[in-house]
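ugh ok fine here u go
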Amino acid sequence: MITFNSLSTYFPAGSFEFVGNSQVKLNISAMTGDSLTLDSEAIKAIYTILDSLVTATNGINSDRAAQTPPLAPVTLASKVLTGTVAQPGYEYKVDFIVDSSTFLNNLKDPTV
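structure:
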């Protein structure tokens, strides 16, 4: 199962904080290493979140491949280098599986 604790190993230290009362805070300042305000540019934070999800997907798949017998890889997040040498870019893709038999909480964890 993908949990905030399991994701935290692939995100920068301090990215997730349990603040009590059933609340988990995504600490974008810790994630980017920048002092932020609501007027700060958001692109670096979005990039860090997406890139960390790709790193987590790769780590999860490495762990699954090491199982006996090996488990099939999951598809959660991926990135592809796009653009040109002069102007490179990344295209990110995040996949979610939907359990159509339920109405509420219908997103499925790809590792389960």
